[in-house]
């Protein structure tokens, strides 16, 4: 009985999240223009290199910038410990591939998707964005960003092989929809701080 109830909760949360995000995923070529792309962090290896999942997100963000779909990139990830730094690894990856530093803003306290969305709105002043994440995370990410006040579209990475790793991460992401519903309803405060102008500065920069 408990298992059935839990399954019903997860399915209901997943359905509600998907309804909030319906019709908002595009490809990198068809997405409507916006000032900024919010690229969400993922695993960085001990070498400092991004995982294939994160590298794919970054490549999509770079494509959006290079084709003029967005004017700046906001890289949001986990830097909760000095030994682990997603945003700097993301920035380094992009700069090594020709993205001008002045077109990049970073958020070091994007500890989860809700925090990334909430801080983009409350700390960085983002009001309209293209979010970039994996295909299976698009509904949850769009729903969370819309809930905090960002007019959101999305580009999802569909390039990863559907192997055991993919299936495990996919399942974990679906289960996270229940946490997303809580965040949408309760609106907990993320880690806050001083207002940042780096997104606005990156939008205004000419890119060298």
CATH superfamily: HUPs
**Average residue-wise pLDDT:** 90
Gross morphology is globular
- Kindly state the percentage of residues in helix: 40-55%
Described by strand count, sense and barrel closure, the largest sheet is: 6 strands, parallel
Q: What is the CATH topology?
A: Rossmann fold
Q: Can you tell me the residue ranges where pLDDT is under 50 for at least 5 consecutive residues?
A: none
Total count of helical runs of at least 4 residues: 7
CA(first)-CA(last) distance: 62 Å
Structural class of the helices, strands and pairings?
A: alpha/beta
Main sheet: which strands, in order across?
A: 1-6-5-2-3-4
Describe this structure in words.
The protein has helices spanning 2-21, 52-66, 86-95, 113-122, 138-147, 164-186, 198-204; strands at residues 25-26, 36-40, 72-76, 104-107, 128-134, 151-157. It has a six-stranded parallel sheet, sandwiched between helices. It has a single domain, classed as 3-Layer(aba) Sandwich (Rossmann fold), CATH 3.40.50. The protein is 46% helix and 14% strand. It has seven helices and six strands, in the order αββαβαβαβαβαα. It is an alpha/beta fold and 208 residues long. α1 packs across α6. This is DUF218 domain-containing protein. Pfam families: DUF218 (PF02698). Residues 35-156 form the DUF218 domain. InterPro entries: Cell_Envelope_Assoc, DUF218. It comes from Nocardia aurantia.
């Amino acid at each position: 009985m408990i298992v059935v109830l839990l399954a019903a909760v997860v399915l209901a949360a997943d359905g509600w999240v998907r309804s909030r995000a319906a019709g908002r995923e595009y490809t990198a070529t068809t997405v409507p223009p916006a000032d900024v792309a919010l690229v969400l962090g993922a695993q960085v290896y001990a070498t400092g290199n991004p995982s294939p999942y994160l590298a794919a997100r970054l490549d999509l963000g770079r494509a959006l910038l290079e084709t003029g779909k967005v004017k700046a990139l906001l890289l949001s990830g986990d830097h909760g410990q000095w030994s682990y730094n997603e945003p700097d690894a993301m920035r380094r990856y992009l700069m090594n591939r020709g993205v001008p530093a002045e077109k990049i803003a970073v958020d070091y306290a994007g500890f989860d998707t809700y925090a990334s969305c909430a801080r983009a709105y409350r700390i960085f002043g983002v009001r309209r964005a293209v979010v970039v994440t994996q295909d299976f995370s698009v509904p949850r990410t769009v729903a969370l960003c819309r809930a905090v006040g960002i007019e959101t579209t999305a580009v999802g990475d569909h390039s990863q092989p559907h192997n055991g790793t993919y299936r495990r991460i996919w399942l974990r992401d679906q289960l996270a929809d229940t946490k997303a519903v809580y965040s949408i309803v309760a609106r907990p405060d993320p880690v806050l701080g001083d207002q940042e102008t780096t997104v606005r500065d990156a939008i205004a920069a000419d890119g060298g």
